[in-house]
Amino acid sequence: MRRDGVPLRRTAAVIAGSALVLAAAACGDDPAPGTPRAATAEEPVLVFASSADPAILDPAFHSDGESSRVTSQIFETLVITEPGGTGVAPGLAESWKVSEDADTYTFTLRPGVRFHDGEPLTAAAVCANFERWYNFTGLAQSDSVSYYWVTVFRGFAKNESGTLRKSLYGGCAAPDDRTVELRLTEPSAAVLSALTLSSFGIASPRALKAYRADEVAGTADSPRFTGTFGTRHPIGTGPFRFARWIRGDRLELVRNDDYWGEKAKLSKIVFRPIEKAADRARALLAGSVHAFDYADPADLEALKRAGAQVLERASFNMGYLGFSQKTEIMRNRRIRQAIAHAIDRDRIVGTRYGPGAKVAQAFMPDSMWGHSEDFAGYGHDVAEARRLVAESGVSEPTLEFCYPSGVSRAYMVDPEGNFRLMKADLEAAGFTVRPRTLPWSPGYLDAARAGDCPLYLLGWNSDFGDPDNFLGTFFQSFSNQWSFRNEKIFEVLDRAEKEPEQAVREKLYRRANALLADFVPGVPYAQSPSFSAAARNVTGWTPSPVLPSDSFARVALR
User: Are 37 and 48 in contact (CB under 8 A)?
Assistant: First the structure.
């Protein structure tokens, strides 16, 4: 499941030199490095440096981390990821039961919850959200729009594409105001964890209709959301409410004083887009922001010396070199194997990544159950790569290699640096490489998802703690991004999702890892902890291994 964002180009000089217009900002002496003056104790305002603007604030229509970070404060899901871990905890549902055959999930809603527009949260409102997602039509069914619904629930009431499958969603019933019965068309052991995704945030049905949430124009490769729900009126039940959004400058949330639970400690959160990790670090040290994610490992010591807090997130990600078999050369297995042997993964991780990083040997991190190291068989071997190229029958093989600009991720801190090392490796093995760089979004992500990049750099920060979130997301069925059909891989991953016994599921995922290493749809090459930074006066921020699901409700400024 994808983590991406919309890049904004903004330099540190601009950020540091601009005045942050914050309500009730404190006056006084200049703060020490790493301690911004942002607000009084009465009106605490957190300024968070995001890596980009969100793509959209309708959770059903986003698949990027920066959108998820913001919508997680506005909307809530039936269940959540436990703070600091990967397990499932109560959210809008205070409890739940799973049928013996794992095809019916019954949730009991918390009492007294209201949406930001004053409408009550009822079981009927929850079912209205599921029915909305299930009944998407037209562009709303495309992978670039409703990615997570397709990934988890596979299809719609009336599928309009041959790549979609029969939906896992079998219906939603509301026997009373607080009871939700979610029925599946077949068993799924992974769906409960998947419901922690911010994309399944419950929205006000009245607001969805009033602000034309389902209006999507443009094309599947470049969708445009013409309704205003996802840009000016996102209405959920969360601890913060939407205030305003000036693209390229700021997005502001304010405390929801009618929240059903403990009220947020902050009066406001201001998200400021700063594209580069180094620029975010400079903004923190200059006192312009309080916190940011995706810190460059090269900046960590300087941040610590200046008195800032450095927070490490456990490694729950994986960076990979992907192959699109939409192009003829990538359908040649010998070519795919040659690329795998050509890439010096140890050198890339050793020179481009920070503390705790390691070479990935599967399309999942080694902390995930079901992991196996089948890709260890693709050691760096130029002679073997050249032999495989010769056996492929492709003379003078040429590869179009896409890499993104305007993005930094734990699994890919420096995309251009990774590309340059891989390009040199491929050329040493006899390939001609044609570079193609595109802005992260829109542009790069759309091209990669459409399968229009024969060779491309991407990665994955886990959305929830189940192997299905890695292998199932990527390879359980046909997707344009990978553009292959391998029924043996599809079948094993289908069985793994349906199987209720974890020990059996673990064996199935190990089998899938072996099949993937043999088929070589791409090359996993790095897994790395990610680092966040905060000013010394920030408290209550608990970074989650699952990015970016952090709640800011408990964050305070001392």
Answer: no
Report residue 275: phi and psi, to 5°. -65, -50
Asked if residues 335 and 387 have their Cβ atoms less than 8 Å apart, the reply is: no
The tens digit of pLDDT for each residue in 30-64 reads: 334 344 444 444 679 999 999 899 999 999 999 88
pLDDT by residue (tens digit) across 410-455?
888 889 999 999 999 999 999 999 999 999 877 898 899 899 999 9
Contact 484, 322 (CB under 8 A): no
Share of the chain above pLDDT 90, in %: 72
Task: Encode burial over 163-180: b for 16+ CB neighbours within 10 A, e otherwise.
Answer: ebbebbbeebebeeebbb
Burial 465-492 (b: 16+ CB within 10 A, else e): bbbbbbbbbbbbbbbbbbbbebeebbeb
Beta bridge partners of 217: 224
* Helix, strand, or coil (residue 125): helix
CA–CA separation, 224 and 208 (whole Å): 17
- 3-state SS string for 174-222: EEECCEEEEEECCCCCCHHHHCCCHHHCCCCHHHHHHCCCCCEEECCCC
Q: What value does the CA radius of gyration of the chain take, rounded to a whole number of Å?
A: 23
Nearest to 61 by CA among 244, 225, 233: 225
pLDDT above 50 (res 400): yes
User: How is residue 276 written in tokens?
Assistant: 């580069």
Contact 527, 318 (CB under 8 A): yes
Residue that is written with structure tokens 């639970």 in the block: 261
What's the distance, CA 27 to chain centroid?
38
- Read off the DSSP letter of residue 31: P
Handedness of CA 67, 72, 73, 74 (dihedral sign): positive
Task: Return all residues near 142 (Cβ < 8 A) that are at least 6 apart.
Answer: 161, 220, 223
What band does 547 get if pLDDT is binned at 50, 70 and 90?
Answer: low
Q: Are 251 and 6 a contacting pair, CB within 8 Å?
A: no
Give me the sheet containing 169-176, strands edge to edge: 93-98, 104-109, 179-184, 169-176
Which residues, including other chains, have CB under 8 Å from residue 140's CB and lie 6 or more apart?
61, 146, 214, 216
Contact indicator for 153, 204 with CB cutoff of 8 Å: no
* Cα separation, 208 vs 206, whole angstroms: 6
How many Å apart are CA 216 and CA 336, to the nearest integer?
A: 37
Sorted by sequence, the CB contacts under 8 Å of residue 53 that are 6+ apart come out as 5, 6, 8, 66, 247, 248, 251, 273
State whether residue 54 is helix, strand or coil. coil
**pLDDT digit string, tens, across residues 160-180:** 998 898 999 999 999 999 999
Nearest to residue 156, comparing CAs of 137, 183, 139, 173?
137
